[in-house]
Design a protein that fits this description.
single chain, about 170 residues, 4-stranded antiparallel β-sheet, alpha+beta, elongated, 7 strands
């Protein structure tokens, strides 16, 4: 079936394929119908965060879950790592080049340092504050009746100490 356009229908269609004329573009000229290239060359996504920053982020997300003292030396459990003063921290990243040294372990803080080329770890430090106050992670909604006198056992066992916070319980 052949369709022949005439009049106003012909004007609305515009240029037909048989009416096109080829344009020869020299190699030095820009192709007017081609896509424009990027203004800047495409870069491969580079990791802009330094290894030290990634180590800091990982160590800051870990919490100190235990403390102990043995032979006059305080140790702490930071996530899966046992921290002893003077010991090197195991790598936290695959192919980690930075060496992290445990500088100080106290009851209220842990201080770690990145070892420099001269072997010291004084310039770049990470200080982790330790919160030893117990917190409730999951409240099961079970309430023991408060004892008549402070320091006696409750219905669930243990010792209930009456203070301002426990008086506010429903």
């Amino acid at each position: 079936m052949i369709l022949v356009l005439t009049g106003s229908a012909r004007a609305s269609v515009g240029l037909l394929p048989e009416e096109k004329q080829p344009i020869v573009v020299a190699v030095a000229e820009r192709n007017p119908y081609g896509k424009k290239g990027p203004k800047t060359p495409l870069k491969i996504d580079e990791d802009t965060e330094s290894e030290e920053a990634r180590i800091r982020n990982i160590l800051n997300t870990l919490s100190v879950t235990g403390m102990g003292e043995r032979e006059g030396q305080t140790t702490a459990l930071l996530g899966p790592f046992v921290l002893k003063p003077g010991a090197k921290l195991p790598p936290v990243l695959p192919d980690q080049k930075e060496v992290v040294l445990v500088i100080l372990v106290q009851s209220n803080l842990v201080e770690l340092g990145f070892v420099d080329k001269d072997g010291t770890a004084d310039a770049r430090k990470i200080t982790l504050n330790i919160k030893r106050k117990p917190t409730v992670r999951y409240d099961l909604g079970i309430r023991a009746t408060p004892p008549a006198t402070e320091g006696t056992g409750g219905a669930l066992g243990g010792t209930i100490k009456v203070d301002e916070d426990s008086k506010k319980q429903p």
